[in-house]
């Protein structure tokens, strides 16, 4: 009877476990914030709990459908697909709930046999951790209610459009041939685009408050919290990347290798290049950021490449992160101590573009992406160049859409609640400056 209800029990069990690991990542992001900003910053944990419950709640009501139901003209999932909203409302006949599988998990599409509940938990976890990444940019500056209001739009539309375009088998970018294995663009780069929109609104409000440059949020490293955060995040990535195969098979095990090798290689590279640059022992922050950069870079192509390519990509990640960090540190319009822009934005975009260079068709086919040709480094030729064009086009479109939608909604929220920035924080800054002058 159980096997009749869940046709592929192994795949469903694997994806549910992967979903739970991905949910851990949201809280791990909060631990990273505490590790960067000091253990007194308990607001990070409150924020991540709000994000997690909002993701599950809103995705269940409508967000899962707008991302993963059959799309309307390839643009957005039909919110009324099946019996209705709320994962089928009160119906016992909702597709894939008690019997059958979610439509895109059947033989016509991905053919992994996932039930609605398994797939919902997995994608809700992805939405949650993506917004957690966006939220690191608000730090101490933004009202919690502004972030809560923004999450509604985020989990209904902003996160869902890229997911519908790229991960939904009827999405227009997917049909064009774009692939993003576990979210280099849908998660990391798109989080960076949304973060840029929010810091733009923050900077506009800060200028009205009389600041000539955005006040920097100081770093107060707490090594214990930082180490705990990255270890939990790395463990969560075991679900994030390997789980994205959506089946328990040899490809999932290969993805475990590519993910862990890229992370380790990038950590070695980041600390090594930091030592070459400064001739001083790099602190734990660079080990953490190295691991994170490797994980980000490998995410969009973890199921398309060999372990050897993962090592090469990780080694490139070190100098890439250091260069991006140096560039973004010069910005006067925002503060980014947790590394949303040099890590997630730059690393995510770089990883997506590398699909056209490092993909090996045999690995891609094993992960269910047989449309991908060999990359330029493996004799892909014109087919690989064509894939590069598709990936670059997708990056531009998604980045523009997420940035514009995010800014429109955060601007509207600011108008409705009298600004998104927290007055108490800026009064504290001005008082500290006045005391320093005295």
UniProtKB/TrEMBL annotation:
Principal subcellular localization: membrane
Annotated keywords: Membrane, Transmembrane, Transmembrane helix
Gene Ontology MF terms in the entry: ammonium channel activity
InterPro entries: Ammonium/urea_transptr, NH4_transpt_AmtB-like_dom
Subcellular location: Membrane
Superkingdom field: Archaea
GO BP: ammonium homeostasis
Bilayer disposition of the protein: Multi-pass membrane protein
Name of the protein this chain belongs to: Amt family transporter
Taxonomic source organism: Candidatus Mancarchaeum acidiphilum
């Amino acid at each position: 009877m159980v096997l009749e209800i869940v046709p592929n029990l192994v795949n469903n069990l694997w994806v549910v476990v992967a979903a739970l690991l991905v949910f851990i990542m949201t809280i791990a992001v909060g631990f990273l914030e505490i590790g960067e900003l000091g253990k007194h910053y308990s607001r990070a944990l409150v924020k991540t709990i709000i994000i997690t419950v909002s993701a599950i709640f809103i995705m269940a009501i409508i967000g899962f459908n707008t991302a993963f139901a059959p799309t309307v003209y390839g643009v957005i999932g039909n919110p009324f697909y099946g019996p209705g909203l709320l994962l089928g409302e009160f119906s016992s006949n909702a597709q894939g709930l008690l019997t059958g599988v979610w439509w895109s998990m059947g033989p016509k599409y991905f053919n992994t046999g996932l039930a609605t509940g398994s797939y919902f938990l997995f994608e809700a976890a992805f939405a949650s951790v993506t917004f957690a990444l966006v939220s690191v940019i608000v730090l101490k500056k933004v009202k919690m209610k502004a972030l809560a209001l923004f999450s509604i739009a985020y989990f209904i539309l902003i996160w869902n459009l890229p997911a519908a375009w790229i991960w939904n088998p009827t999405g227009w970018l997917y049909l064009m041939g774009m692939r993003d294995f576990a979210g280099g663009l849908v998660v990391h780069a798109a989080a960076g685009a949304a973060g840029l929109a929010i810091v733009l609104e923050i900077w506009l409000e800060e200028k009205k408050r009389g600041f000539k440059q955005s006040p920097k949020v100081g770093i107060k490293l707490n090594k214990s919290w930082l180490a705990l955060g990255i270890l939990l995040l790395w463990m969560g990535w075991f679900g994030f990347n390997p789980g994205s195969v959506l089946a328990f098979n040899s490809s999932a095990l290969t993805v475990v290798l590519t993910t862990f090798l890229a992370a380790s290689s990038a950590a070695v590279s980041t600390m090594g290049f930091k030592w070459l640059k400064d001739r001083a022992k790099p602190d734990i922050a660079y080990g953490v950021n190295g691991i994170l950069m490797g994980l980000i870079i490998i995410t969009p192509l973890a199921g398309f490449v060999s372990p050897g390519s993962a090592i090469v990509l990780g080694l490139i990640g070190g100098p890439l992160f250091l260069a991006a960090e140096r560039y973004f540190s010069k910005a006067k319009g925002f503060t980014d101590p947790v590394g949303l822009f040099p890590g997630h934005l730059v690393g995510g975009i770089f990883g997506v573009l590398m699909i056209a260079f490092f993909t090996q068709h045999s690995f891609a086919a094993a992960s269910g992406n047989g449309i991908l040709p060999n990359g330029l480094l493996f004799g892909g030729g014109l087919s690989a160049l064509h894939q590069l064009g598709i990936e670059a086009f997708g990056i531009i479109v998604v980045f523009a859409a997420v940035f514009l939608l995010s800014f429109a909604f955060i601007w509207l929220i600011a108008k409705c609640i009298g600004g998104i920035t927290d007055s108490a924080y800026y009064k504290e800054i001005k008082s500290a400056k006045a005391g320093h002058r005295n």
